[in-house]
Amino acid sequence: MNLALLTNEAEVAEFLQTHNPIPKVGLFTNMVMSINGSYSQSSTSQLLSDPIDRIMLKYLREQADLLLVGAATIRSENYQPPQKLDGTPLPLAIISKSKYPPTNFSLTSANPMMLSPKTGSQVDLVAAIAKLREAGYEKILSEGGPSIISQLHRLDLVDVSYRTISPVLASDPTPSIQGAHPDHLVPQQLRYIAQSEEGLLFTRWDKGYTPGIKTT
Question: What is the pTM assigned to this prediction?
Fold first, then answer.
């Protein structure tokens, strides 16, 4: 597998058009991490990113019908209302213990859907995803945070994992992303790998069987 070098937006667009086929229905996750497994530095992932990573994020959002994010990530990353490449709003669903959006989040054009627990302290993500699909949101992209993506993996809801690996050691004790099954490996198939000039690696992993990996 060749390691593509991505240096500008045109190359990102061409690379994804060639190497990133998208299923008609699926749940995708996108996260950046350091080489020692941290998902943030100084409580934000922005210090782990670079311009090409941010371009990749725009194009991954373009393929989605809806963006799914936890309220803590909305706050720590100072989210703005998400948009498609042409400037049209990308529907947003926020997972939160509260029925109200984070106070630092602008609702001018986002008007997010709030996914809150009906009982207890945890959102029923299986029911929430099913409800979103019934509403017509077939391609769902989650940008975290790690605890949300861990829950999605444990429930075996993730079809494609996009992971950007930043060539740094970070010090934030971010919780690791847990697998779907605590008692055995969960195989993933590498679909592509690319690199930016600053050394970030962009990978896509599809859920599925990998030869030579024991799964039970």
Answer: 0.89
